[in-house]
Specification:
The chain contains 10 helices and no strands. It has one domain. It is an all-alpha fold. 78% of the residues lie in helices and 0% in strands. The relative contact order is 0.23. Helix 2 runs antiparallel to helix 3.
């Protein structure tokens, strides 16, 4: 996929907003990641948007790991990797053989389902006041999970792999996975940071093989880099000052709306 990417005003402005949101997601507000993916996919063809975003996401991952790496929950991360690997392979196959318009609808469906699903989860958490990222780790989460729970986590891991490969939108299923595992807010930030660094680096050869990451896409990535840097700095500054369940719910609603727009476009 070596189609030239025109740096129109819409691409520069919309892409900068998207990378700002991605930076915020990396260092402090994870729900914004899927919204950033939706924004960049609205100003660039969704498949090409994935190639432009990937190098920027890796830069953000490196910064996030340096900030939160001490809080990584290694056992949870190790358990997650096999199902994510399966999801990456499925996502690669979809990108290779599905027509671009089908890929766009897949991106939309993933964002819509992720946004609505995580919104339902947050509303349930507000009612039950259980297992949210603002509370300490759930002691019961350290008990061995049941077979049904292991299957649910594997499905979420595979979903995270597919969605991050196709749409750079693996944040919501990843967050839900970690919440099911009873991870605290600090643990979530650290584990998400290392998880996405590992996954995004693993995606590079796939994306290069598909022609998504190229000299042309890197040129656009470089233009959008300042937005990412600003987002990373703001996210780091506000990471532990904004819990904002209402804000998080609004972000998820907007993510679902962006997914619906791509789905019917």
């Amino acid at each position: 996929m070596d189609t030239a990417l025109d740096l129109t005003a819409a691409v520069v402005v919309g892409g900068s907003i998207a990378t700002l949101l991605m930076g915020l997601a990396k260092t402090g507000l994870p729900p914004l990641g899927a919204l950033g993916a939706a924004v960049i996919a609205s100003v660039l063809p969704p498949v090409q948007a994935a190639g432009v975003a990937l190098p920027l996401l890796i830069v953000g991952d490196l910064v996030a790991v340096s900030a939160y790496g001490r809080d990584v929950r290694w056992p949870v991360l190790r358990a997650l990797l096999p199902s994510v690997t399966l999801g990456l392979v499925v996502g690669f196959a979809a990108l290779r053989w599905a027509p671009p318009e089908v890929s766009a609808r897949v991106v939309g469906a993933l964002l819509l389902l992720a946004g609505l699903g995580d919104l339902v989860r947050q509303l349930a958490a507000l009612r039950g006041r259980r297992r949210t990222t603002d509370h300490p780790e759930n002691p019961g989460a350290h008990a061995p999970p049941s077979a049904r729970e292991r299957l649910a986590r594997a499905a979420l891991g595979a979903t995270a792999g597919v969605s991050t490969m196709i749409a750079n939108a693996g944040g919501p299923p990843m967050s839900l996975y970690l919440l099911r595992a009873g991870i605290s807010r600090a643990g979530l930030l650290g584990t998400v940071a290392l998880f996405f660094l590992t996954v995004n680096v693993a995606k590079l050869p796939f994306s290069a093989g598909l022609g998504l990451v190229s000299a042309e896409s890197l040129r656009v990535s470089l233009v959008l880099l300042p937005g990412l840097v600003v987002g990373l700095l703001i996210g780091r500054a506000v990471a532990h000052r904004i819990s904002g369940p209402v804000f998080s719910a609004a972000v998820l609603v907007l993510t679902a709306a962006a997914g619906a727009r791509l789905l019917v476009a």
